Amino acid sequence: MFASIYGMTVLGLHAHLIRVEVDVSNGLPSFEIVGLATTAVREARDRVRSAIRNSGYQFPLQRVTVNLAPADLRKQGSGLDLPIALGILAATNQYRGACLDHYVFTGELSLEGSLRPVPGVLTMAISLYRDNQQYELETTRKTKELSLVISPENLAEARLVTGLETHSTSTLKQLIAALEGENDFEDERILRVSLGEEIARGNQVDWTDVHGQQHVKRALEIAAAGGHNVILVGPPGSGKTLLAKAYSGILPPLSESESLEVTQLYSVCGLQPCNGSLVQFRPFRSPHHTITKVGMIGGGRDLRPGELTFANYGVLFLDELPEFPREVLESLRQPLEDRELTISRQSGSITYPANVSVIASMNPCPCGFFSDPARECRCTPLQIQNYRGRISGPLLDRFDMHIEVPRLNFSELRNASGSQESSQTVRKRVIAARERQWARLGPAKTNAEMTSKESKEFGRLTSSGEALLQRVFDGQGLSARAHDRILRVARTIADLGDSVDIFPEHLAEAIQYRALDKRLQL
To answer: What domain of life (predicted)?
Structure first.
């Protein structure tokens, strides 16, 4: 006796259609699952056996073999519990309804037979919708689109993909009854949250909460407008952390495609509540400096994403940058350049997005008071050199802007609140500058993503600007990458000023944000 059911598994940010083939034959009672299944999938044997019995059906006392095709694709997660159970019931003639070839089933089964939610349903729904649109499935199925059957807790998430037929049910027994026509699915109307709706964030810092530091705010506005990576250098208590938290508030809102991608990522990792809403805020991730390399860029047995990917389309804040392990910092070099990373292991390889804005902070020395007029530095020159040497030159080149954050004096701290701009006001200027970049470079592309060819094409300088850049390039011994970074930042400054050309004053302001190239002597 044989039955075939469709299921799905998620690897990275991609879902794959799985054909669950069940064969029940005479022989000693056994239950085997083959087809490159992980531990979570193999453990389905115990869950499925108990769920079938506790739902009022008979588990066959025969040889049960389940094949998960394609056999060379790694299967993970507990979402294949439901199609395996349905396949066994269909193969033993305990299901007598219509053909199941037009459904895709996913869900974890409890021992009592109820359906539990699984992560990654949004990714499954997107993949299934695209398959239905492109007709890339088997020829026997082209006559009808596939429908997705999931648990009620996952229904709101799946309904974010309009145009895909989705159904839900609470238990295995109710699902069989619905498929046989005895009752209806437990579908309910899900209202989609408008993309324009603001979701309040309790921990969001407004631009007005940061007193003083006007030149630092100006630099961060430039960074937000062009998508540039920034490193903040200053003594303890100068406001570096507060500025980094306020930075996410001046970034443009997520577009619909960006919001869907962020929600999809959080869904795969089980971080998104199943409330039927898209993520509306840009992620802000601030890992501790004790984080491992796997925790930062991802990996492990299941090739899970790391903090770098969780911050996609948002902000990755690296507080106390020199305190991070050297291998963690060096692992960021390639992803920050390519804005994506590929994790390769023996079990396979997965590419994750890494389109982030990195804000890093550090003290000027181990004690934190080097060049501080209010406090005396207690560090020796060798200690300062070793501390700064923890950040390699190639990594420092990945930061477009190096900003010094001085300590505020008493009068600046007490009198700065009167003339503050709100995050909303600054965000409007940032959005206007981004729109100029999109018109020039293409949708959703910023100046920080310009290639060397684009930097030369859109970063043409006057003769005086060329002379200024050459003088700085030779005097500070800048790298070719630092040269391109200066042109990109100057282009952003011109965009903020609604200027088509890059004038010497734009270039001079961009150059001052590379002061650490010489001062840190890395």
So the answer is: Bacteria
CA distance 516 to 522: 9
Q: Alpha-carbon torsion 212, 432, 200, 245, what sign?
A: negative
CA angle 181, 184, 185 (to 5 degrees): 120
Amino acid at 221: E
The last residue of one of the domains, among 159, 179, 199, is 179
pTM of the model: 0.87
Confidence of residue 417 (pLDDT cuts 50, 70, 90): low
Residues 323 and 465 in one domain: yes
List pLDDT tens digits, range 248-292: 999 999 998 999 999 999 999 888 665 667 888 899 999 999 999
In a domain, 512, yes or no: yes
CA distance 362 to 512: 18
Pair (216, 173) in one structural domain: no
In a domain, residue 308? The reply is yes
- Per the CB < 8 A criterion, the answer to whether 374 and 407 are in contact is yes
The DSSP string of 412-440 is HHHHGGGGPPPHHHHHHHHHHHHHHHHHH
Q: Phi and psi for 488 in degrees, rounded to 5?
A: -65, -45
Say whether both 239 and 118 belong to one domain.
no
- Amino acid identity, position 47: R
Domain that holds residue 143: 2-179
Q: What's the CATH code of the domain at 165?
A: 3.30.230.10
Exposed e or buried b per residue across 465-481, where buried means at least 16 C-beta atoms within 10 angstroms of its C-beta:
beebbeebbeeeebeeb
Report the alpha-carbon distance of residue 62 to residue 64 in Å, rounded: 6
DSSP letter at 19 equals E
Shared domain for 219 and 150, answered yes or no, is no
Q: What is the CATH number of the domain that holds 381?
A: 3.40.50.300
What's the Rg (C-alpha) of the chain?
28
329/228 same-domain check: yes
